[in-house]
Write a structure and sequence with these properties.
This protein has about 140 residues and is α+β, with helices and mostly antiparallel strands. It has three helices and seven strands, in the order αββββαβββα. The chain folds into two domains: about 45 residues, no CATH class; about 60 residues, wza like domain (wza like fold, 2-Layer Sandwich), CATH 3.30.1950. The strands form three sheets. Strands 2-1-5 form a three-stranded antiparallel sheet, with helices on one face. It has a two-stranded antiparallel sheet with strand order 3-4.
């Protein structure tokens, strides 16, 4: 019996979305190259802006310098920036948020209407990704 191609895609997609391992609980989102971060420092209008995480996973911010953000959570980035800003600002309050997710990519291949790369948010599951690609039904023999 021939297995439908989307079963293979489902198995591969689960491995892709979860890094090849079972995920018991949802982890914090980690920043990826291509993401845009919105950063602001309370009562410091000159330290308010958006930064693009570069392909090597880093970004630069005034008074903080270069930061390697790849694989770090927003909370980790806030702590790094807080430590560096304390040299210049007493008791800084920093907000870091992911403004645009462009680093989460999935690839859907096989018998779908639109195979290729899709940028998704971290909560998209395999069936949703397949739906985005436009599932095609197998033709049944007459």
């Amino acid at each position: 019996m021939k297995q439908p191609i989307y079963v293979l895609l489902l198995v591969c997609g689960v491995m892709l979305l979860h890094g090849g391992r079972a995920v018991a609980q949802e982890a914090a989102y980690t920043v990826k190259p291509g993401d845009t971060l919105k950063i602001s420092v309370w009562k410091e209008p000159d330290l308010d802006g958006s930064v693009l995480v570069t392909p090597d996973g880093g970004f630069s911010f005034p008074l903080v310098g270069q930061i390697d953000a790849k694989g770090k959570s927003v909370t980790e980035l806030q702590q790094i920036m807080l430590g560096r800003l304390k040299k210049y600002i007493s008791d800084p309050v920093i907000t870091v948020a992911v403004a645009d997710i462009k680093g989460n990519k999935v690839y859907v291949l096989g018998q779908v209407a639109h195979a290729g790369e899709f940028i998704v948010n971290p909560r998209v599951d395999v069936l949703q990704a397949l739906s985005m690609a436009g599932l095609m039904r197998e033709s049944s023999p007459i």
